[in-house]
Structures are given as structure tokens and as C-alpha cells.
Fold this protein.
Amino acid sequence: MNWRRSSWRWGVIVFDSSKPDGTPRKLLNVERMHSLGWQAKTSLRDGIAKAYADFLTSAKSESF
């Protein structure tokens, strides 16, 4: 589909290479939470397994 024909505006799309491209990576740092005494009760591996098991259970009971 030609953008220029499908839009009521005419113009040129210009890429600005000085701006970030794509979604920036988001990293989490839990050091502050650890310094306050917080510890996770569930490991990442177990949490993913539990979330996947819950998804499978709910997917069986719902029709998509």
C-alpha cells in the first residue's frame, strides 16, 4: 500500500539517525530491595513454570 496515496497528507518520511531506534532494553536491579531485606520466595525458573502451568489450566477452561 502506498502511504502517500492512502493518506490525505503529502510528505516525506525522514529517518533521524540521532534518535534511538527500537525499544530500549529494560533491566531490573533488585539490589535496593535486597538491602531493605526483601528476598524472592519463588525462583525465576519456578515462577515461569508456575505461570505456564496456570496458562495451560486457564486455556483448557476458556475457548479462544
About this structure: The chain has a mean pLDDT of 81. The longest helix spans residues 44-61. The helical segments are 3-6, 31-35, 44-61. The radius of gyration is 23 Å.
